[in-house]
Specification:
Blueprint lengths: L2 H10 L3 H34 L6 H24 L12 H24 L6 H20 L21 E6 L3 H12 L5 E7 L9 E2 L2 E2 L7 H7 L4 E4 L6 H14 L2 E4 L17 E2 L15 H8 L3 E5 L4 H11 L5 E6 L2 H11 L5 E5 L5 H11 L3 E4 L6 H6 L1 H22 L3 E7 L8 H15 L6 E7 L1 E2 L6 H10 L4 E3 L5 E2 L1 E2 L1 H14 L4 E5 L5 E2 H11 L10 E3 L20 E2 L5 E4 L6 H16 L3 H9 L1 H8 L4
Parallel strand pairs: 1-2, 1-5, 5-6, 8-9, 8-11, 9-10, 11-12, 12-13, 13-18, 14-17, 15-20
Antiparallel strand pairs: 3-4, 6-7, 16-19, 18-22, 21-22
Helix pairs in contact: 2-3, 2-5, 3-4, 4-5, 7-8, 10-17, 12-14, 14-15, 14-19, 15-20, 19-20, 20-21
């Protein structure tokens, strides 16, 4: 006998008495119903067989014989596994057990009938067993009786390269994933059991795969059954649950794959192919913010909306969400035709969607566009964002992040735009990088225009997960290549948010703004980059330093170990919306700001890049140029 199978039998055997007791307690109602069906089936057939005229002597023999018949049927049902199953997910394997139980019952009842001198007619014995079989099947299968789909893999089987998996979650999604695994041998997965925190499911089986216990048993089960991988089959799992499961998997040394969230699942159907590797957004240490959809819909429905940088990570998600609110026109502006084409494919063909291939650095072009279309709402997401690159090319940060913002903001005032939302960054707080400094000056530009008919606000993000060039895809790419994973500094920490959550904040800001605000999201606990790298390596099925090396490269130009979300002088206050805070920094003096911008342009034009970079990133020099806020 296979050593692994012997181990499983020995491990399971001590728990059989307890399991039997639990099964009996849960299955008493079903067993009583089966007993009733047996009596009714044989009784009806006896009456029909004798045309309703049953002699009293036959009645006596019938009622003395029926307890044995009932016992035979219940015993066969038990032996063939018709109790202790989750019948709402039953399929061909359970139907096979039902037929075997019915056939065995028929044989035993016939033997008893002949041996006891035919207490009931043989036709009643034969047809009674058949009618009982159909009645028990109808009770268990109900609407699934005629909806079987052939299974191509025996659950006891396994092949070369098969991975032994444990499924967390014995609900609807778990049943769909299990069914797909069982009928698709090419997946190379062998389901060993389920784990579910619902105590009512423990000891039951789903398609023959047992529910082995609660989540706390994962480490023990991994060792006992030599599990290779954990599959989390709960699309509605909260971040707390996912994080707990991830920690259990990390401790047990097995990889974890998860189903997409409920909102990502199409038509509520899932398969084993929907399982994906764990993403950092699955582990966010707080619940994600949800928009006041009624207020957001009221703001955008029937309005003209302009999005700059529409092909980027944030801009494309804004476009996708705003398109669902039925705007009168959705103008998507980007200077990259490939990215613009991609976002059009994502948003879909619609007469309200209008692509605009243009560069915000072209002031005349921007002014003409905004005056022509006169949007009600502008989301300004166009920007250069990569910190090290902008350290060596500060003129590009000036032309795009600063002067490009001035172009679109001035055009918005001229066109009578109602609301203007600037996408900013946490790096704009006491900036030490050219990128952060350029975004801080952009914030000052829009604040300087307050009171001119347009409600301007800025929204600051931490690191957006999945955006181009962000750390998570970089780590995963390095892990897939076998390493090394590069961490700048063991003390480096960052705040993270998903792109969906970032855009939720943007939409909320648009509805809340009355002008001059800076909105930020309460980001929860920061994440250490070293800890993040180790977790991602573990959850990719590898061991840090053994399978994938981690090397420290030192902080890059413009980076600091910890970013801040709000300046101490800004005095953030709650907005009334969960997780969102607002501050209202003083507006800079506009003439002073204009002179500072002219100085920065002169530095760029004359090639004084060191002076330009210092002017953008140094708080002291920046305020000396721009002037203290009035």
């Amino acid at each position: 006998m296979n050593g692994r199978l012997e181990k499983e039998i020995v491990e399971v055997a001590p728990s059989l008495p307890g399991r039997i007791v639990g099964h009996v307690r849960r299955d008493v109602p079903l067993a009583l119903l089966d007993a009733l069906l047996v009596v009714v089936a044989y009784l009806v057939l006896l009456v029909l067989r004798l045309d309703g005229d049953v002699p009293s002597s036959m009645w006596g023999r019938f009622w003395r014989f029926m307890p044995g018949v009932v016992l035979v049927h219940l015993l066969c049902n038990y032996l063939f596994g018709l109790y202790g199953q989750m019948w709402r997910y039953a399929s061909v394997q359970e139907a096979r057990r039902l037929v075997l139980a019915g056939g065995s019952s028929l044989a035993l009842v016939l033997i008893g009938t002949v041996w006891l001198g035919r207490p009931i007619p043989l036709s009643v014995a034969i047809l009674g067993a058949g009618l009982t079989l159909m009645a028990c099947g109808a009770v268990r299968f109900q609407s699934r009786l005629f909806a079987f789909r052939r299974r191509t893999v025996d659950t006891e089987g396994g092949g070369i390269g098969t991975r032994r998996v444990l499924l967390l979650g014995a609900g609807d999604a778990g049943a769909m994933v299990l069914r797909d695994i069982l009928r698709t041998p090419s997946l190379g997965l062998k389901p060993i059991g389920f784990v579910d925190d619902d105590p009512r499911k423990r000891g039951l089986a789903l398609h023959g795969v047992p529910v082995l216990g609660g989540r706390d048993r994962v480490p023990d089960l991994v060792v006992r059954y030599e599990i290779d991988e954990i599959l989390l089959t709960v699309p509605s799992a909260t971040s707390d649950v996912v994080r707990d499961v991830a920690e259990l998997c990390e401790a047990a040394g097995v990889s974890l794959r998860v189903l997409p969230s409920v909102r990502e699942i199409v038509h509520g159907r899932v398969t084993a192919r929907d399982l994906r590797d764990l993403r950092i957004e699955d582990l966010l240490g707080r619940q994600q913010v949800h928009s006041d959809l009624q207020a957001v819909r009221a703001l955008f429905r029937g309005k003209r909306v302009l999005i700059t940088g529409a092909g980027g990570s944030i801009g494309s998600e804004i476009a996708r969400q705003v398109a669902a609110f039925e705007p009168a026109a959705l103008l998507l502006l980007d200077n990259d035709e490939t990215h613009l084409h991609d976002v059009l494919l994502d948003v879909g063909a619609d007469s309200a969607v209008m692509p605009v291939l243009a560069d915000i650095r072209d002031r005349a072009r921007v002014v003409d566009l905004v005056l022509e279309h006169r949007p009600h709402v502008v989301f300004h997401a166009a920007a250069h964002k990569h910190v090290p690159l902008l350290e060596t090319h500060p003129q590009e940060a000036l032309f795009t992040n600063v002067l490009g913002t001035a172009n679109i903001a001035d055009a918005s005032v001229a066109a009578g735009v109602e609301r203007f939302v600037l996408i900013s960054t946490d790096k704009a707080v006491r900036p030490v990088s050219v990128m952060g400094g350029s975004k801080r000056v952009a914030e000052e530009i829009v604040r300087s225009l307050e009171g001119r008919g347009t409600a301007f606000c800025a929204v600051r993000f931490g690191n957006v997960l999945g955006s181009r060039g962000s750390v998570i895809p970089t780590f995963l790419r390095q892990i897939r290549a076998g390493g090394p994973v590069t961490v700048t500094d063991p003390g480096m920490i960052r705040y993270f948010m998903s792109v969906e959550e970032a855009v939720t904040l943007v939409l909320e800001a648009a509805t809340l703004s009355i002008g001059g605000e800076v909105f930020t999201l309460e980001m929860g606990e920061p994440v250490g980059m070293l800890d993040l790298a180790r977790k991602l390596i573990h959850l990719s099925g590898r061991v840090p330093e053994r399978d994938v090396a981690i090397v420290f490269t030192g902080a890059r130009p413009g980076e600091r170990l910890r970013e801040e979300l709000v300046d101490d002088e800004e005095h953030p206050a709650p907005t009334g919306r969960l997780g969102i805070v607002v501050s209202t920094p003083p507006a800079p003096d506009r003439p002073t700001l204009h002179r500072a911008l002219a100085d920065l342009e002169r530095f760029a034009r004359d090639g004084h890049l060191t002076e330009l970079a210092d002017g953008l990133r140094s708080p002291h020099l920046r305020y000396e140029i721009v002037g203290s806020p009035s």
